[in-house]
Amino acid sequence: MYENRRRPRASSFGATVAVAVTMAIATGSTCVDAATAAPKHAQGPSLGAHTLLAQPDGQGSAPAIAGPVRTQASGSALLVLVGGYNGNAALPSDNYGNTWVQQGPRITYRGYSGRFGTAAYVALPAKGGSDHRVSLAKPGVPAGEISAPFVEIRNAGVLQDVATSYPAPGTVARIGRKLGRNWPGAGLTSGEVTTTGPATLVAVWWGDAYVYRMTAVPDQGFKVIERFLDLPPSSGVQCAVAVRQVDRAGTWRVTWRGAPAQGAILWLFAFQAGS
Fold it and tell me: Is 80 helix (H, G, I), strand (E, B) or coil?
């Protein structure tokens, strides 16, 4: 994001170092029974394909395209989050004709004159297959920066719970920042989600500071699967995505720690198998 184009902006929103770079893709694997050669699907949900689209400010394209990835033909939930200009807010679409529903409100970043925010969208149940792409319209600022994680959760019939929060950096971290020290502070904790059985938890971190290089590390057994934390000179929307599998009912949260200290919009999703 840019607050003032006459000075190099140090951050805010992770994007791509090229005009439109699709980040890592992981498609998961299928277990096959040796006796029957038939695919065995896990009883609970699991992480499927995932990628992260990021475009730098002033070098983006419209529509922005996340993917391609290879998703499961049926039985998956699809999650897309979008960080960028509020003027580009629009429902996603994809080349398999899925119906996307916004989850909760769009959350606007502090500062930046209210011009930037994040939103989350889910398609469930979803159709999929090879060359799966998600299209993101950019009606307000076509060349504007955007970051968009696209995550498949296999064998997920229910979005059981969603939590959002927007914590500011703690007192110690703020003092360190004023002194020019990169103190991480006490960390930023998400809201809580409650599950009734095995679930795939997806946590997303969106930092809000004017920095180009940063870290964001989750606790509680969450593993980062996508990140955009080294920003190009033209700026972008910083983002990190982490996943945890849980095998029982419970209430869950995650704390993110990193440097330099900054506030962050935090999302946490719990996906479960259908009844």
Answer: strand
Structural domain for 67, as ranges: 21-27+44-272
Look at residue 186 and tell me if it is in a domain.
Answer: yes
- Average pLDDT along the chain: 84
Q: Is residue 238 domain-resident?
A: yes
Tally the domains of the chain.
1
How would you classify the pairing of strands 239-246 and 223-228?
antiparallel
In this prediction the pTM is: 0.83
Q: Which pLDDT band, with edges at 50, 70 and 90, does 177 fall under?
A: low
Asked, for residue 143, whether it belongs to a domain, the answer is: yes
Dump pLDDT digits (tens) for 35-47: 223 334 446 899 9
76, part of any domain: yes
Instruction: Report helix, strand or coil for 172.
Output: helix
Distance CA 145, CA 54 (A): 8
β-strands 158-165, 93-94 pairing:
unpaired
Q: How far is it, in rounded angstroms, from Cα 254 to Cα 245? A: 13
List of residues 6+ apart from 225 with CB closer than 8 A: 24, 26, 47, 50, 151, 241, 242, 243
Work out the average pLDDT over 79-98: 98
Q: Which residues contact 179 (CB under 8 A, 6 or more apart)?
A: none
Q: Residue 157 and residue 43: Cα distance in Å, rounded?
A: 12
Tell me which of 41-55, 108-122, 189-203 is least confident.
41-55
